[in-house]
Amino acid sequence: MQVVSLSGSPSPRSRSAWLLEWAHKHLAPRAKTARQLNLRGLPAFSLLTADFRDPDLCSAIDAVLDADVVLVGTPVYKAAYSGLLKTFLDLLPQDALAGKVVLPLATGGSPVHLLAIDYALKPVLGALGARHLLDGVFVADSQMPPHDTLGYLPDDAVLARLERALAPLAAQWPALPHSTPSRLPITESA
């Protein structure tokens, strides 16, 4: 299986990036290929002008098209996923997520943004052809306080929700463990 992670956070260190990396680190060792795409690293001009001649932009789009599993991480601002993620998703072909397993992960300042996954992000992912959308995981900032060495320290309920979100892949991917380590530090990714 090929796994790709899309980070829609404009910040290099963020809760949504931490969640995405946690999920990615648990899937990557079992994947044929695993790639992390930090959308903030794509050339802004090419991204905003849909310059399909840009090799970095084309490589990112191809990574999504070639993937079997797509992890999507985003902060929630004003009850919607990030503009950075929206800009990238707009460049994908209409059926880009057809036949793929998609796991949305989101963070927000408070639980009032909980439904952003279901009412903002999932409809767009569905419009891109995603039919196998796993239950998303939303985490409020208070559930993941900053930590000096680990980046963030999610509470046990968050970790349990992450494990449950990945569980459907275990049936399709027997090598995926049902129980995973609870704490992984976040690192800067290219």
TrEMBL record:
Residue ranges occupied by any NADPH-dependent FMN reductase-like domain in the UniProt entry: 1-142
Annotated Gene3D superfamilies: 3.40.50.360
Single biological process term from Gene Ontology: alkanesulfonate catabolic process
UniProt keyword terms in alphabetical order: Flavoprotein, FMN, Oxidoreductase
Designated name of the protein: FMN reductase (NADPH)
Family from the record: Belongs to the SsuE family.
EC assignment: 1.5.1.38
InterPro entries in alphabetical order: Flavoprotein-like_sf, FMN_Rdtase-like_dom, NAD(P)H-dep_FMN_reductase, NADPH-dep_FMN_reduc_SsuE
Pfam families from the UniProt entry: FMN_red
SUPFAM superfamilies reported for this sequence: Flavoproteins (SSF52218)
Any one GO molecular function term: FMN reductase (NADPH) activity
Superkingdom classification of source: Bacteria
